[in-house]
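#onboarding

Welcome to the new folks! Below is a worked example of what a typical request in this channel looks like: someone posts a single protein sequence, and someone else replies with the predicted structure as tokens. Don't worry about understanding the tokens yet, we'll cover that in week two.

Example request:
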Amino acid sequence: MRSSYPRKLLFRKTKHTTSYSLSTLAWRKFKKNRLGFGSLIFIGLTVLVATLGYLITPDQTPFANDQCLEVGLKKPGFTVNMLLVRKNQPEFQVSWLSAMISGKRSDFTPVPYNTYRIQGSYVILTDFTDVPGEHSQERSFHLADIVFPLTEDRNKIKTVGNMLLFKDIYGISHRESISGLTATIRSNNMIRRHYWLGTDRFGRDMLSQLLIGTRVSLSVGLISVFISLVIGIFLGSVSGYFRGWIDQLIVWFINVVWSIPTLLLVIAITFALGKGFWQVFIAVGLTMWVEVARVVRGQILGIREKEFVEAGKALGFSNYRIIVHHILPNIMGVVIVISAANFASAILLEAGLSFLGIGVQPPMPSWGSMIKENYGYIVLDSAYLAILPGFAIMLMVLAFMLIGNALRDALDVKTSS
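Example response:
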């Protein structure tokens, strides 16, 4: 017997009959939180910037450390004419992957200038100055020495009419016309460099320093949180599940570490391990596991008496299987929220250590070390040198805190979706 209801109505899905997994429901709730979802997009962009690294920075030298003292302490938006003079050394060849990770040593020395003229086989520059009335010195560069890497003996360059005869450091003989070298220099070696966020006192590009400094902050957060999760989840799980004297011993150890101020403990571990890039990660990670262990222990104490845990024991499952496959998945939501907050704390700790001079060491750029180098300019007319990295730290910490709050609301099963 055929139904009297229309076929479309029989197979229509309504909002009340459609079922979703808990992760799907949590993701839907998270997307409704505009601040949290916007922070996630911001973090994604910073991760992309940190991954691409030197491929997108104006200064692609290692650590963005191309110093040009003549253009130090210039305002954002500063532009200057540069003559790129070939260094008299072999060309430094690297792959794109190596350049993205570690940067590429420049084969040219930038020379800022105000005006230039070509006289015979020389380019004569007037040194850059932006001070009205200040006299500029003149410097001369041989045309061949600008384009090719030559030996230190420039007297071996011969001029025959309009031609230049010389050898480079590889022993290769060249016969170049003066007009041809002049055209090459004007098109390839004379550039106008833009400093979108200005320069520091050493003439380094501030934008490049900020972008590469993103790597340090994200790396210290990621590795430190990973170390804290490994230690905290292990100790918290063992303490909460087995209880007894093991629980008492671990709780005593947690309380001892918890009683020591975090910054002082990080400084002590840093002094013991030494100054450096990886030492900061380990020092911060070894101080952030306490909160993870306390929360995991408390959650497991409430779950270990549930029916599914008793059923696992009755079926003969090992303690390892019960903890890893049955208990921990039920508390990962709380752990994820704690990790977001710890990520923000790790960024602040790294910045504080670098500001004190015991964190990431120069020439590696770090937002904390940038503030340390430039905080004296706050009372002068170059306060942006310290404000920019401070603003970057504030945005990164705020983004992770907003993500943590959004995750807490999204993973709360008591609230309606």
